[in-house]
Amino acid sequence: MAHQVVNQKATIGNLMAVYGYWAAVVAPLFSIASSYKALSSKFINSKRALKIHVTFGYSEKAPVLKGISFVAKAGEKTAIVGDSRGGKSTILKLILRHYDLTAKSLRTHVSHVPQKPGLLNDTILNNVRYGNLTATDGQVQRACEAAGLHQTITSKKDGYMTKVGENGVALSGGEAQRIAIARIILRNPDVVLLDEATAALDSASKVQVQQSLRDVTQGKTTITIAHRLSTIKDSDRILVVEAGRIIESGDHSSLLNIGRKYAMLWRLQSETMYSSLEDKRCLNCSCGGRGVGAD
């Protein structure tokens, strides 16, 4: 075509039109190829997830999980704890079947509350309704009442029609998490996955949201990822994960009696919390934070 333009057998307009058509055809082809590659990779990963004693990695050379196998009984609360990058969140992703193209039906029975809920740049009403798109306004309101969110919403100028902004920028962390909880109530799933659901909240919001979570997960199969052990000590079973393996399993009391990893983490967190409380008391006393009594 360029040769024809030089020889004045075609115009610049003809050349640009050909390039435009070519781009319109090639771009979707590249997109299809890329999607096929991604889907193929996920399908392969899903096969690994179906095995007992799962070994899983995002690449074959670096497994994240090594021989993981456990059963979460119906209605039981299971907590997964351990050091950062130990594989806790990967376990949740496999439960959600992010890597399995054939299990869409499973997701209808599972709800996930992450550390930062995904919020639409839309109204509070529509963000809550995202948990069940067929829910009526009345059902949304009742879900918000159960999540302890209704009074907060009605105190806002536009009530349920308040826009939350991009990524929920107009809401506090506690309000955003309560929207996620209201979604669960609307959806009424069999399984609830909590991934550090209160980690990013201030102390006051954390207490309120934890109570709402206890209420909404009552009688449901619940799997919790937690860093703060005090939030999961009432779980029926606690799995301690380290370097992609489950190294301890039991309830809070039995794991403390074993005296290994969980007991060490509990002791460290308890000492840190106690030290923090002592520092606050000290700053309020006559020593001014020097750690000594008044002169």
TrEMBL record:
What are the UniProt keywords, alphabetically? ATP-binding, Hydrolase, Membrane, Nucleotide-binding, Transmembrane, Transmembrane helix
Q: Which ranges does the record mark as transmembrane?
A: 19-39
* GO MF annotation, one: ATP binding
Sorted alphabetically, which SUPFAM superfamilies does this protein's record hold?
Answer: P-loop containing nucleoside triphosphate hydrolases (SSF52540)
The answer to whether UniProt assigns keyword Nuclease to this entry is: no
Q: Which GO terms describe its cellular component?
A: membrane
Q: Which Gene3D superfamilies match?
A: P-loop containing nucleotide triphosphate hydrolases (3.40.50.300)
Location of the ABC transporter domain: 50-268
Q: What name goes with this protein?
A: P-loop containing nucleoside triphosphate hydrolase protein
What organism, scientifically named, is this protein from?
Answer: Lentithecium fluviatile CBS 122367
